[in-house]
Write a structure and sequence with these properties.
It comes from Solibacillus faecavium. This is Polysaccharide deacetylase family protein. The chain has 401 residues and is an alpha/beta fold. It folds into 2 domains: 134 residues, no CATH class; 237 residues, Alpha-Beta Barrel (TIM Barrel), CATH 3.20.20. Strand 23 and strand 24 form a beta hairpin. The protein is elongated.
Length: 401
């Protein structure tokens, strides 16, 4: 009778809330052989995370045809056949997310911080994991509900995720009309920067990946970087997109709604004005570049008041502006569901927080502040501006941990 009642309640809830999924209960599983676990980024890229040793037991849940095991903030997957459910109770250890740590190389995980400990797993190279803090000569981590210990000397403390900002691009910046504009980047410099990221093994993550990490629902690679392009200039499609395509990289552009047009003039890399991408151009880059909010009509700066139009606008008018931008984005592609916002000029008004939340803005971004931390305020996420003629060594210093 008890099982019938439970089933009835679940069926009732699924009828009332048809889009809600219900996680299966945690079970204790025993690893049948040394098994590598993975997680997946938003673009379905598979990331190798940890190798669990044969005979170890963990808490897990069934998800499709895999076991899902929580490791720090990560939810990693192993094939169902690689572990079996056993009748053993594990009282879950607390994961307090005290700090984020990184691996450079593959790193052993032990069952104790004492000399008599045994190795229970191996963290993969280029892994970011949350830790409960220091215990002796080790960092304490939680793997499948159980405590594990990784040597301090093998780890780095995470300095955060670099979120890079770009705007307009030209050829030969020193001969360009924009040579004195710090926000305009020579396309040759950009290509060198992307080559550096690729050679160093960086993964260009989506803002959805960043969002999930900041919500402590997903891991990220240690070498994760987000590329963002404010204003959706036409140089993004004509000059940047081919470089991203060649390097299999991804980014996000923040669109100024009232500057997106049906027709755009032929691209002129030597033009003395900034050209903006139109509906067709933005739609054509969506396989690599996600489209998000940068206001509809509030990208104006009041020199007399030293404030942006967004800072001066009312909550009601901001709500309307966001809705207007949503309409523009739907014209680019009806499947766009924007939830990230770049403040024009990086200027904000704290009285607008409720308006952003009401309009499903999950993260909003500044144009300064350094690397993003897992604890960064969600409506004030810092970024790193890439500027005119920035030496490659300076770019490296902004990116490297």
């Amino acid at each position: 009778m008890k099982h019938f009642s439970t089933l009835f309640i679940l069926l009732f809830l699924s009828f009332i809330f048809p889009n809600v999924t219900y996680a299966s209960a945690q079970e204790t599983v025993k690893i049948e052989k040394d098994t590598t676990a993975y997680f997946y980024l938003h673009n379905n890229q598979e990331v190798k995370y940890i190798t669990l040793k044969k005979g170890e037991t963990y808490l897990a849940t069934i998800e499709d045809l895999t076991w899902m095991i929580e490791i720090g903030n990560a939810k990693v997957h192993i094939d169902k056949q690689d572990a079996k459910s056993i009748n053993e109770k594990i009282t879950p250890a607390q994961n307090n997310n005290k700090l984020q740590i990184l691996t450079n190389d593959s790193t052993p995980v032990y069952n104790s911080h004492r000399n008599s400990s045994r190795q229970i797993a191996t963290l993969s190279a280029n892994t970011r994991i949350s830790s409960n803090g220091v215990k002796g000569y080790f960092y304490e981590v939680v793997i499948g509900g159980k405590l594990g210990y990784v040597p301090i000397k093998k780890m780095q403390v995470d300095a955060g995720v670099p979120i890079l900002i770009y705007h307009h691009f030209v050829e030969n910046i020193q001969k360009s009309y924009f040579r004195n504009n710090i926000s305009v980047v020579d396309i040759v410099d950009f290509e060198q920067q992307m080559t550096f990221l690729k050679n160093e093994g960086y993964t260009t993550i989506s803002l959805k990946d960043l969002d999930q990490w900041m919500q402590k629902k997903q891991a990220l690679p240690a070498k994760a970087v987000a590329l963002t392009f404010d204003d959706a200039n036409l140089s993004l499609e004509k000059m940047v997109y081919p470089i991203l395509k060649e390097n299999n990289m991804h980014g996000t552009t923040f669109v100024i709604g009232n500057r997106v047009k049906e027709e755009t003039p032929p691209f002129n890399s030597e033009a003395e004005i900034v050209q903006f991408a139109g509906f067709k151009e933005l739609h054509s880059v969506m396989d690599l570049i996600e489209i998000e909010h940068h206001t509809y009509a509030l990208h104006v700066y009041n020199d007399a008041l030293k404030r942006s139009q967004l800072q001066l606008t009312s909550a009601k008018d901001l709500h309307y502006d966001i809705q207007q931008t949503n309409e523009v984005l739907k014209q680019i592609d009806p499947n766009i569901q924007a939830q990230y916002y770049s403040y024009p000029y990086g200027k904000f008004n704290k009285n607008h927080e409720a308006t952003f939340i009401e309009n499903n803005i999950s993260l909003a971004f500044l144009n300064k502040g350094g690397k993003a931390k897992i604890t960064s305020p969600r409506l004030y996420v810092p970024r790193i501006p890439v500027q005119n003629s920035m030496p490659l060594e300076q770019f490296k210093s902004f990116v490297l941990n």
